[in-house]
Amino acid sequence: MFQQLISIDNLKFDEKGLIPVIVQDHQSGQVLMMAYMNKEALMRTLSSGEAHYWSRSRQTLWHKGETSGNYQHLIAMQVDCDLDCLLMQVKTDGPACHTGHQSCFYRPFPMQIDSENNGAKDEHR
Questions:
Q1: Burial category of 37 from C-beta neighbours within 10 Å (exposed 0-12, middle 13-18, buried 19 and up)
Q2: What is the pTM of this model?
């Protein structure tokens, strides 16, 4: 099957100039986090081999691990079929989540709907 080469200019950044990035452990396949990149963060990631993101709350570039020491080293990157989301496989120097958890996805979400409160039931209370 023919594989088309993709450039940064082919990517579909949103109206704020951002593209979502799903970050995955390259060995286990565990999803570690989801973040956003702008073109500059993507270019810095590709040139340095370490993850850089755009912080929407701080409105600035963010070099993952710069303050925590928990760097993410780029192993591979794919783009989805619509060219509007990246999947990045990384080798980590520590936990991905600022809470100290290996993954930001450590909270279970209830699988039942509470029709009285128009939301999900929390069976862990």
A1: buried
A2: 0.85
